[in-house]
């Protein structure tokens, strides 16, 4: 790889209000993306085996952490996406906190096994059930304009359902994705 090609792989997180470079990142190579998907695929069965209760408890810890750091997260969104702090709090942080609450409160009801009745008299002695199983690895490609709320709400729903997630954030707001991962 030449220096020019290596330089092309750098992404700068830039404050849109000031033009200040906040941080620079290396883009993931194709091999690094494949490795991330493989790690997610390897981890997913163990994540699913935790069960809904433990996954919901982990979401609750995430919710608590986000609530404790909501102002810091809103300022990060402001510096990287250009939203006013109040808008970042209302349309990003509070939306994620509410989505987390929804996932925690409704995970059992949505994911529980449900009986499926047979209406045919010849099948009266048979029973059926509807079970929900995770897909496995979910890939999320996130936009810049809602750099926390869109990837977080999609990630939370996938995780509580037992899936692993690989997130590709917008190249304009990579720090918001790093904060979400933290």
Shape designation? elongated
Mean pLDDT: 91
Largest sheet: 2 strands, antiparallel
Number of strands: 6
Q: Let me know the CATH homologous superfamily.
A: Aldehyde Dehydrogenase, Chain A, domain 1
Structural domain count: 1
Gyration radius, in Å: 20 Å
Q: How far apart lie the N and C ends? A: 31 Å
Number of helices, where a helix is a run of at least 4 consecutive DSSP H or I residues: 7
**Series of secondary-structure elements, N-terminal to C-terminal:** HEEHHHHEEEHEH
Helix proportion: 55-70%
Strand content: 5-15%
CATH fold name, please? Aldehyde Dehydrogenase, Chain A, domain 1
**Helix- and strand-based class?**
alpha+beta
**Order of strands, widest sheet:** 1-2
Low-confidence stretches: 1-6
Short note summarizing the structure:
This protein has a single domain, classed as Aldehyde Dehydrogenase, Chain A, domain 1 (3-Layer(aba) Sandwich), CATH 3.40.605.10.
Can you walk through the features of this model?
- By secondary structure, the chain is an alpha+beta fold.
- The chain has a single domain, classed as Aldehyde Dehydrogenase, Chain A, domain 1 (3-Layer(aba) Sandwich), CATH 3.40.605.10.
- It is 57% helix and 15% strand.
- The strands form 3 sheets. A two-stranded antiparallel sheet has the order 1-2. Strands 3-4 form a two-stranded antiparallel ribbon.
- A hairpin with a 6-residue loop joins strand 1 (10-14) and strand 2 (21-26).
- Helix 4 (70-81) packs across helix 5 and helix 4 runs antiparallel to helix 7.
- The longest helix has 27 residues, at 85-111.
- It starts with a helix and ends with a helix.
- Residues 1-6 have low confidence and may be disordered.
């Amino acid at each position: 790889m030449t220096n020019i090609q290596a330089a092309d792989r750098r992404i700068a997180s830039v404050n849109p209000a000031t033009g200040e470079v906040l941080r620079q990142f290396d883009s993931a190579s194709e091999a690094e993306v494949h490795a991330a998907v493989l790690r997610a695929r390897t981890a997913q069965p163990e994540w699913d085996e935790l069960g809904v209760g433990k996954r919901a408890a982990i979401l609750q810890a995430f919710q608590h952490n986000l609530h404790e750091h909501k102002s810091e997260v809103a300022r990060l969104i402001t510096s990287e996406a250009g939203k006013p702090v109040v808008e970042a709090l209302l349309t990003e942080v509070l939306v994620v906190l509410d989505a987390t609450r929804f996932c925690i409160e409704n995970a059992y009801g949505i994911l529980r096994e449900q009986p499926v009745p047979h209406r045919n008299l010849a099948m009266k002695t048979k029973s059926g059930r509807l079970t929900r199983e995770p897909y496995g690895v979910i890939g999320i490609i996130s936009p810049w304009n809602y750099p926390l709320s869109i990837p977080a709400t999609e990630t939370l729903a996938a995780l509580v359902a037992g899936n692993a997630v690989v997130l590709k954030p917008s190249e304009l707001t990579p720090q918001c994705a790093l904060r979400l991962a933290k």
